[in-house]
Design a protein that fits this description.
Blueprint (H helix, E strand, L loop, with lengths): L1 H28 L3 H15 L4 H5 L8 H7 L5 H12 L13 E7 L7 E6 H21 L7 E4 L7 E2 L5 E3 L1 H7 L3 H4 L6 H4 L4 H12 L4 E5 L3 H13 L1 H10 L10 H6 L6 H14 L12 E3 L10 H8 L4 E2 L4 E2 L2 E2 L1 E3 L7 E3 L4 E7 L11 E2 L8 E8 L6 E13 L2 E9 L3 E2 L6 E2 H13 L7 E7 L4 E7 L6 H15 L1 H9 L6 E5 L3 H12 L12 E7 L3
Parallel strand pairs: 1-5, 3-6, 6-7, 7-8, 20-23, 21-22
Antiparallel strand pairs: 1-2, 4-5, 9-10, 11-12, 12-17, 13-14, 13-15, 15-16, 16-17, 18-19, 20-21
Helix pairs in contact: 1-6, 10-11, 11-15, 12-14, 16-17, 17-18
Length: 546
C-alpha cells in the first residue's frame, strides 16, 4: 500500500487543491449568508422561469424573496408530483430548464405509499458531490491518518427500477460513487456491482470479503445499522470468512450472480487469516480491529439513530464517529463540522433555505424565517428550494439550532414530522399504518383501535398494541400489517428484507385500555373531545434495558 500511496500522492495533491478551494469558498460564504442566499434564489428563479412550474407560478415577475414567498406557497412532494410525473414521462421542462439533462431519479418512499422521484441533473449532482468533498476534506483534515487509504462505502444501487423513458431510479449515492474522480474511485475496494446484490446476507458478506484485506481507513454509509450489519455478518460467518481469506476465494452464504462471482478475484492471504483467527480466539468474537485500523466512521448520528452508537462502540472501540450531515434524496442541507455531534452548518450554497417555526407546522399559511434570522436553541421544520426543481418544499424534518458559523445556523436533526416514525431509516407515516390496518381488516379481521410504536432492541421492531378481542388472532393481524406496510413503504420493505428491522409484534391489551387512555388525554385537554384525534402511530422510540 505504501508504494501505491506514493504513486497516487501527486494526483491526490491536485485533487486536494480543488477540494480545498471549494472548502475555502464554502466557509467564506457564511460571512455573507443573506447575500449568498439572495443571489442563489435569483439565479434559480431566472433559470427556471420557462419551466411549466415557473410559468404557473409567475417566476418571470419575481424580483426578490418577498415576491417569491407570495408567488409560491409552502408545499410538499404531492404539490410537485404532477410536475414530476411529466418529467418521468419525458417532458423534462415541466420542472427542469431547457437544455438541462436529467441523469436519473433519486428514489425514496412517499408519505402515502407511492414512491417519490427526485430529478437528478448535472447541477444538482455537482452540488451533492461538492458537499461530500467538503465534508470528507474536513474529516480527513481532522484525521490525517486516513489520507490516501481505502474508503469503504455501503450504498444502495443507483438503478432499482426504470422510469417510463428508461432512466435509472434509485439511490443517488450509487451515481455519486460511479461518477467519482478516478483518484477517489481507486480508494474504493468494493465494486459497484457488489452493492447491487439482492440477497442481503450475501451482499454484506461480499462487501466485507472485498474489503477485509484492504487498508480501510474510512467507513461511510447513511445509516449506522448498515455498518453494524456488515460486521455482524462477518461474525455470524467468521469461519467461512477466514477460510475464504486464507484460500483467496469468495464463498458467500446466499446467492451471488455467477458472472459477478466469477469477476471477483482474490489472492490467498494466510497471514491475515491467522491474525483474524488469533483475534477471534483472544476476544471470543471477530472484531474490526482484527483486520482493519479505521481512522473514522461517517454516518448519521441524530434523531433515533443515536441509539446505534453504543453498538458501534462495542464493535469499533474508540474510533471517531462523524455525522454525514442532513442529506436526503432531495439534497444536502447541512455539512458536519466536528466529530461526535449530529450538528452541521447550513448548506447555503446549494439550497435556498427557509425554516418554519414548529408551532406553524399545521398552519394553512405558515410563517417562514430565512437562514440568517434563526434563534439559537429554537426548533424549526426545514423548507428547501434547489436545483432539483423543488420549490418551498417542506422536508418535514424537525431541526434544532445549536449555534452559528458566521451568519449561518448550525443545526441538528431531531425527527421526522409529527406523525412519522423512524428507527432505522424506514420513515413510516401514520397514513401508511392506518391504511395497512384497513387492508388487514379487509382480509377478515376486525380492529377498532390500535397503537403502533417502535422499540429499539437487538433487532429493532414495531409493537402493535391491540385490545384483546374474542376470536381475533393478534399474531395474524401483526403479520398482515407487516406484509402490507412492506408494500406501502419501500424503505420499510428494504429494512425488513435486509434484517435491520424485525417483524411487527402484537401486544395484547386488556379490553378498554386504549379507550381509558384516550379519555385521560381528553381530560388533560380540558375535556375538549372535539379537538382530540387518536394517534395510531407513536413516534417516540421505546428502548429495551441494556
Amino acid at each position: 500500500m505504501g508504494v501505491k500511496r506514493n504513486i497516487l500522492r501527486p494526483v491526490a495533491w491536485l485533487a486536494g487543491l480543488h477540494a480545498a478551494r471549494q472548502l475555502r469558498a464554502f466557509m467564506a460564504a457564511h460571512e455573507r449568508t443573506e447575500r449568498v442566499q439572495d443571489e442563489l434564489l435569483g439565479a434559480m428563479v431566472d433559470r427556471h422561469a420557462e419551466t411549466a412550474f415557473g410559468r404557473d407560478h409567475g417566476f418571470a415577475s419575481i424580483r426578490g424573496y418577498e415576491d417569491f414567498r407570495r408567488a409560491v406557497p409552502v408545499g410538499s412532494y404531492e404539490t410537485h408530483r404532477p410536475y414530476v410525473e411529466r418529467v418521468l414521462a419525458g417532458e423534462t421542462e415541466a420542472l427542469v430548464p431547457r437544455g438541462e439533462r436529467v441523469l436519473m431519479f433519486s428514489l425514496t418512499s412517499g408519505t402515502t405509499g407511492a414512491p417519490k422521484h427526485v430529478p437528478v441533473t448535472r447541477r444538482f449532482l455537482a452540488d451533492m458531490r461538492k458537499g461530500w468533498n467538503i465534508a470528507g476534506l474536513m474529516a480527513l483534515r481532522d484525521h490525517p491518518e486516513g489520507w490516501l487509504r481505502a474508503i469503504l462505502q455501503i450504498a444502495s444501487p443507483m438503478c432499482e427500477e426504470r422510469s417510463p423513458t428508461g432512466l435509472p431510479c434509485g439511490a443517488i449515492s450509487g451515481l455519486l460513487a460511479a461518477t467519482q474522480k478516478r483518484i477517489v474511485r481507486r480508494m474504493y475496494p468494493v465494486p459497484q456491482a457488489v452493492q447491487a446484490i439482492s440477497d442481503p446476507t450475501a451482499k454484506y458478506y461480499a462487501i466485507l470479503r472485498c474489503a477485509v484485506d484492504k487498508d480501510v481507513a474510512l467507513i461511510t454509509t447513511a445509516n449506522p445499522s448498515s455498518t453494524i450489519r456488515l460486521i455482524e455478518t462477518g461474525q455470524a460467518h467468521a469461519e467461512r470468512l477466514i477460510r475464504d481469506v486464507a484460500d483467496g476465494r469468495l464463498g458467500p452464504p446466499g446467492e451471488v450472480p455467477p458472472e459477478l462471482a466469477a469477476s471477483l478475484k482474490f489472492r490467498p492471504n494466510r497471514a491475515l487469516a491467522r491474525r483474524m483467527e488469533d483475534g477471534m480466539r483472544r476476544d471470543g468474537v471477530l472484531l474490526p480491529r482484527h483486520f482493519w485500523k479505521p481512522a473514522i466512521l461517517m454516518n448519521w448520528t441524530g434523531g433515533t439513530l443515536k441509539l446505534y452508537l453504543r453498538r458501534l462502540r462495542e464493535l469499533f472501540g474508540d474510533v471517531p464517529v462523524r455525522d454525514i450531515g442532513l442529506l436526503a434524496s432531495e439534497g444536502r442541507f447541512s455539512v458536519p463540522l466536528a466529530d461526535d455531534t449530529p450538528a452541521g452548518v447550513a448548506e447555503i450554497t446549494a439550497n435556498f433555505l427557509e425554516f418554519m417555526p414548529v408551532e406553524d407546522h399545521d398552519a394553512t399559511n405558515p410563517r417562514t424565517l430565512r437562514a440568517h434570522e434563526l434563534e439559537v436553541g429554537a426548533e424549526y421544520f426545514l423548507v428547501v428550494s434547489n436545483w432539483a426543481g423543488l420549490w418551498r418544499y417542506n422536508m418535514d424534518d424537525r431541526v434544532r439550532v445549536t449555534g452559528r458559523l458566521g451568519r449561518s445556523p448550525v443545526f441538528e436533526f431531531l425527527s421526522r414530522g409529527t406523525r412519522t416514525a423512524n428507527i432505522t431509516g424506514e420513515k413510516i407515516t401514520e397514513h401508511q399504518v392506518v391504511e395497512a390496518m384497513r387492508q388487514a381488516c379487509a382480509a377478515g379481521v376486525h380492529i377498532e383501535q390500535f397503537v403502533m410504536q417502535g422499540r429499539f432492541a437487538g433487532t429493532p421492531y414495531y409493537e402493535l398494541r391491540i385490545e384483546e378481542t374474542a376470536g381475533c388472532d393478534l399474531s395474524r393481524v401483526a403479520a398482515l400489517m407487516d406484509e402490507t406496510l412492506a408494500g406501502l413503504n419501500m424503505e420499510y420493505r428494504s429494512k425488513r428484507h435486509s434484517g435491520r428491522l424485525g417483524p411487527i409484534r402484537a401486544v395484547a391489551l386488556q379490553a378498554g385500555t386504549l379507550k381509558k387512555a384516550e379519555a385521560d388525554k381528553v381530560r388533560a385537554r380540558w375535556g375538549r373531545s372535539e379537538q382530540y384525534k387518536h394517534q395510531y402511530l407513536l413516534t417516540e422510540v421505546l428502548q429495551d434495558e441494556p
